[in-house]
Amino acid sequence: MVTQYKNLINGEMVGTSEVLDVINPANEEVIGQVPACGEAELNNAVSAARAAFKTWSKTPIEDRRKVVQAIAGVINENNDELFRLLTAEQGKPHAQAQGEIAGAAYMAGSQATLDMDDEINEDTEQRLSRTRRVPVGVVGGIVPWNFPVMMAVQKIAPALLSGCTIVLKPSPFTPLTTLRLAELIKDVAPAGVVNIITGEDSLGPLITSHPDIDKITFTGSTATGKKIMEGASKDLKRITLELGGNDASIVLPDANVEKVAEQLFWSSFTNAGQICVAAKRIYIHEDIYDELSAAIAAYAKNVKVGDGSQQGTAVGPVQNKKQYERVLELVQDAKDNGYKFLVGGDQKEEGIPGYYVPITILDNPPEDARIVAEEQFGPVMPLMKFSTTDEAISRANASEYGLAGAVWTANPDEGVRVAEQLETGTVWVNEFLHLSPFAPFGGHKQSGFGAEYGKEGLLEFTYPQVITVKKDNVPA
Ligand SMILES: NC(=O)C1=CN([C@@H]2O[C@H](COP(=O)(O)OP(=O)(O)OC[C@H]3O[C@@H](n4cnc5c(N)ncnc54)[C@H](OP(=O)(O)O)[C@@H]3O)[C@@H](O)[C@H]2O)C=CC1
Ligand SMILES: CCCCCC/C=C/C(=O)O
Predict the structure, then answer these.
(1) Chain centroid, CA 180 distance in Å
(2) Where does the Aldehyde dehydrogenase domain lie (predicted)?
(3) For atom 9 of ligand 2, which residue has the closest CA?
(4) Which of 143, 150, 174 to mutate to test the pocket of ligand 2 (most atoms within 8 A of CB)?
(5) Terminal CA-CA length for the chain
(6) What is the ipTM of this complex?
(7) 3 state DSSP class of 334
(8) For the packed helices 148-162 and 94-111, what is the interaxial angle rounded to 10 degrees?
(9) CB atoms < 10 A from the CB of 387, how many?
């Protein structure tokens, strides 16, 4: 008997007669069914959020903070149950799933400490002008399948703290952990403040163009981001878009090969490479290219790809069939063009269920190879050789994306000099995949706009309202 999950609407867990199957990518078996909501259920959720907004937006921020902290608390308390379910639906190995759940709780708890105090613009004898922040209203949150819990919480926490209410749609590929989380949220948040609904691919566009939703916060592909912008333009909804990336790492010649090989590997292969900020193009200086590429390949050969619930698995399957086929297509294109593979290049053994892509590392493919120029979003790592730092910077910047990047060097000052020339919203020097709840995270160019996290991320859920009092003109 397949477990039936319900949606959270107006403080109640509710189902629908139509349901959608959810598949475990490690074995392609159905592991749960979720409601297939349409317009009627969406309208109920939006009405509940609108009604709750009246009170929630007037609730003191200190009380809203407590609710966000309570959400962080229930996530932490239920890590053990949540991470197993997350592995089953998303595919990531247990340790990484545990990390995502703990990370989501940490991000929510930390964001709960943020403030949006009034700011004084002018305080003179003539006038007092201040900016206050007012919540935008009902938020529609749309999230993908690579970090379902982190992404859900990343939308819910700042929305609630700002005084907004939310209708959140998980990806139909990975809704289960979020719906379990919905049950936990039901017990700690007032009815209607958080609503979580699932449905077929018609649901996202319905949310985007719903006349009573005031803002969309979205994480996913650039192509979908553009559609959302279009759908939201009718009512001039506020939007925050966290989109794709084709993030470059630059390894300068003074980098210690032994120290960076393993870290570079995980900057590309964590979550089977399905991270917007994963390193997707690695530029290595020619002086250390042979040694470093050999060290990465040697490390890769001992990494186990398999079912994330099995001990020893370090890289799980790709999350869904569509993505699996896309990654295989890019690998096949590289083969057809005769590019050299240091590791991988073949498909999994025939007859084994699951969306497994063997670890794939390419040896110096050209810039215009599809596997370099496109966002792979899979367990794939092209290594490329460069001669001068300026050349590496210019190749790194030759992308329509601008999400993140990294520089690896024994000289952090030089790392910062290079970082400042990269056209991305985040750059790490001798670090990877670290996001802070206190720093704005967002893309340049076609990686989106707006920010999440930090005060900037919180303010995205608000309108500024400027109140000016003319002190010397009181008509008394
Ligand atoms: N930046 C990131 O973190 C991510 C980037 N990607 C990139 O996107 C590629 C495709 O992945 P895919 O799953 O198709 O990602 P999408 O961007 O299509 O999907 C992400 C979310 O958006 C929803 N959605 C899709 N179309 C619309 C629409 N027109 N209006 C409103 N919501 C919509 C999806 O729901 P539904 O499935 O029901 O349509 C899902 O909840 C990947 O290969 C990868 O390159 C993917 C995931 C995350
Ligand atoms: C271990 C890395 C955590 C990154 C979480 C943020 C991911 C964003 C995205 O893929 O959109």
Answers:
(1) 19
(2) 17-466
(3) 276
(4) 150
(5) 75
(6) 0.96
(7) helix
(8) 10
(9) 10
